[in-house]
Amino acid sequence: MSGMEGNKYRSYLHGEGELNTNWRYGGPPNYDIVNKLFEDERTKVWPPGSLEEKVQNLVKSWEMEIFHKASLEVFKTIDVNKYTFSLNGIKKEKKRKTRS
């Protein structure tokens, strides 16, 4: 993944590609404390570049986008044209119905 400037676990948080991002809470989140807790408490450190490390960082990047970016159209961790959402067995919804 590209766009790792400023956060070693989350892509697409800082950098030129995020200059026009509309953030839900006025700006990109600060994960310094969360990253410190993660590093202190984790039980496994994945080898750099391993599939496990890539999945770990992808999930953290996806979580950041879902909760902090205001528009699906600027997401980079999912294909917004194919994205659907289902919760507790309810019928899958397309992107327009899943975001407010």
UniProtKB/TrEMBL annotation:
InterPro entries: Pathogen-related_defense (IPR053218). This is Pathogen-related protein.
